[in-house]
Amino acid sequence: MSKWLASVQSLEEACTLLPALPDILDMKDPSKGALGALSLEAVSNIVSLIDKRCLTSATVGDLPMDASVIGEAMIAMASTGVDYVKIGLFPDDNVIDCIEKLEEVVKNLEKPVIAVLFADKNPNLELISYLKESGFSGVMIDTAIKNGKGLRDHWDFEQITAFVERVEQQGMICGLAGALKIEDITELKPLKADYLGFRSALCDQQQRTSMLQLSLAQQVQNQIKHAGDV
């Protein structure tokens, strides 16, 4: 059964979610782009607050496809104690070379690394096999441009299904995100991706940079549990 991920932007939001913790509490700064990074101190404080009551993940920021830059950021973020480190793979002629050069860092990190591709950037799904070979533990699909359009606006159901199947064929963790709405859960849950990720759906008026609302998180949690039940 699909689990759910919720992204928080602060210690205050993490406190708000304590009564309805997701399966993965993700940390990022939505004001800094698709995968904007929180400070290492902020991430460490949230990890301490959660105290293993659920899994945690954190993004390293919207970085250039430079293995030395990304590798350094991954090592630093892993030091906070998060369970997963997430990196974004943006369109770049050197992206395959970057993935291959990250292999040593990924395999020695002692924390699983999740790569994020972007449905609105025409991602090359051939990258998934390179990610597997380089030691990545999972792949998520998201959206890079946060303009109110989500995954369902950029990919049809068949494309999403093909992505899930391709990731699962590699034996990797699969995640779906990108301005997902509560009502998307009913259709996406049967695909059996490992995680469905939410940020804007948890915020007032679906504004991803506004404060997260506990009541909306509880709605998502309930829908994840019961969608499809007869």
Count of helix runs = 10
Percentage beta strand: 15-25%
Radius of gyration: 16 Å
Q: Which second-level CATH architecture applies?
A: Alpha-Beta Barrel
- Secondary-structure-derived class: alpha/beta
The unreliable regions are none
CATH superfamily descriptor: Aldolase class I
CATH class: Alpha Beta
Average of the residue pLDDT scores: 95
Run of helices and strands: EHEHEHEHHEHEHHEHEH
Alpha carbon gap, first and last residue: 15 Å
- Our count of domains comes out at 1
Biggest sheet features: 8 strands, parallel, barrel
The total count of strands amounts to 8
Q: Helix content range of the residues, please?
A: 25-40%
Main sheet strand line-up? 1-2-3-4-5-6-7-8
Q: What is the CATH topology assignment?
A: TIM Barrel
Query: Which word captures the global form?
Result: globular
